[in-house]
Design a protein that fits this description.
The protein is of the alpha+beta class. It is 43% helix and 25% strand.
Length: 161
């Protein structure tokens, strides 16, 4: 694997923007990154911190889909960037990388599935309300709550906010 793919970001620099497709994943060599939902908006929510050895950004690399969160350098940070061409070598050189990614993805799927079921049950309770404005507000609050719970429940984070 080409180790020349080392990237550096300074504190508060945005690494991944929520809603955009990022075709690289990263492994933290040194430093910390903060994960947010709705970064920079009134509804911004701090999800957690990623530290040395953690990988992130695999959603875009593996699926070509937009990132569900923003990642911002919490400190000056050095990252190993892994693109699609390097991914196989990244896994074969350190099989622990594959195991970590698979465990994290599996736990995230289980967490999100449980949250969808809880959200469904909550929505059924909300829908019996007659007040349409209150109903819409409760739905928005519930969706954000379970979206955040799904992210915070992810095994990626060392600290949850």
């Amino acid at each position: 694997m080409d180790r020349s793919n080392i990237l550096t970001f300074h504190e508060n620099e945005i690494i991944i923007v929520e809603g955009t497709v990022n075709k690289q994943m990263y492994k933290i060599v040194s430093g910390q990154a903060a994960v947010y939902i709705d970064h920079g908006k009134d509804t911004e929510y701090f999800v957690g911190v990623l530290s040395d050895g953690r990988c992130f950004g695999e959603t875009g690399l593996l699926t070509g889909k937009p990132s569900p969160f923003s990642v911002v350098a919490e400190t000056d940070i050095m990252l190993l960037g892994i693109n699609a061409g390097d991914f196989e070598a990244f896994i074969s050189e350190e099989p622990r990388n594959a195991a970590e990614i698979m465990k994290n993805l599996a736990r995230t799927v289980v967490t999100m599935s449980a949250n969808v079921n809880m959200l469904k049950e909550e929505m059924l309770r909300v829908l019996v309300s007659k007040d349409e404005a209150k109903k819409a507000e409760l739905i928005n609050q519930s969706i954000l709550k379970y979206r955040v719970a799904g992210m915070a429940g992810s095994p990626y984070f060392t600290n949850n906010g």
